[in-house]
Specification:
- By secondary structure, the protein is α/β, with parallel strands linked by helices.
- It is built from eight helices and twelve strands.
- The strands form three sheets. The protein has a five-stranded parallel beta sheet with strand order 2-1-3-4-5, with helices on both faces. Strands 6-7-8-9 form a four-stranded antiparallel beta sheet, with helices on one face. The chain has a three-stranded antiparallel beta sheet with strand order 10-12-11.
- A hairpin with a 2-residue loop joins β8 and β9.
- α6 packs across α7, α6 crosses α8 and α7 crosses α8.
- The longest helix is centred in the C-terminal third of the chain and has 15 residues.
- It starts with a strand and ends in an 8-residue tail after the last strand.
- It binds calcium ion.
- The site of calcium ion has 5 residues, from loops.
Length: about 230
């Protein structure tokens, strides 16, 4: 879940490579997959910020992949963009029905696709410059920096991913299983108390800035991030 990470599911090598190149130039990190099956394996790990799915794939189709992702509570709110050579109205309706957020018909310009991805990320809460802000806290998803009032907070890579997830969903409570699945990925076996260890480390890193209270314990559930008043200077 690095700087605006795109999972690109496309079986045609030429298109996959061309898009990877264009997206990377557009500032995205790209994880390529050649099939829906490979994409599902990747999605058992840390989640990307958006998934681009080609309609026609060998094995499971792009539409079936989209439906599967929408049914799964872990991936149900992942932004999805469908690529297809078909332009018929009924097909478009079918893919919106499968839970697709946007739709690009081949042939398309990479610029158009990137513009649509950016618009989609804005709609789903990722700002253009990749900087998330909650109260006094800012997290730069591209520069991998956390700051309070401009002062840098040093956090480890796991704490960074944990904070990024919480900042993308302010005031939303996550239980430990949800945090494990989204931050560590489902393919890793980690005990639930590992979450507590990393929450503790995150609070410790935020403490000198008076921001440790932003990471709140929700009794009987887990954790959430809430904006806290500015610390008294
Ligand atoms: Ca294809």
């Amino acid at each position: 879940m690095a700087s605006n990470c795109v999972l690109l599911v496309e079986d045609e090598t030429d298109i996959r490579e061309m898009l990877t190149f264009s997206l990377e130039r557009g500032g995205f990190k790209v994880v390529p997959a050649e099939s829906a099956e490979e994409a599902l394996q990747i999605l058992d790990g840390p989640l990307p910020n958006v998934v681009i799915i080609d309609w026609m794939l060998p094995g499971m189709s792009g539409i079936d992949l989209a439906r599967k992702l929408r049914r799964d509570p872990i991936t149900s709110d992942l932004p999805l963009v469908m690529l297809t050579a078909r332009g018929e109205e009924s097909d478009k309706l079918k893919s919106f029905d499968a839970g697709i957020d946007d739709y690009v018909t081949k042939p398309f310009s990479p610029k158009e696709l990137i513009a649509r991805i950016r618009a989609l990320l804005r709609r789903t809460g990722t700002p253009e410059d990749g900087v998330l802000t909650v109260g006094q806290l800012t997290l730069d998803t591209r520069g991998h920096e956390v700051r309070v009032h401009g002062d840098q907070v040093h956090v480890g890579p796991t704490e960074f991913r944990l904070l990024e997830l919480l900042m993308r969903n302010p005031n939303r409570a996550f239980d430990r299983t949800q945090l494990l699945d989204r931050v560590w990925g489902r393919n890793v076996y980690v005990e639930e108390r590992t979450v507590d260890v990393h929450v503790l480390r995150l609070r410790k890193a935020l403490m000198p800035f008076g921001m440790d209270k932003a990471v709140q314990t929700v009794r009987g559930i887990g954790y959430r991030l809430s904006p806290v008043p500015a610390p008294v200077a």
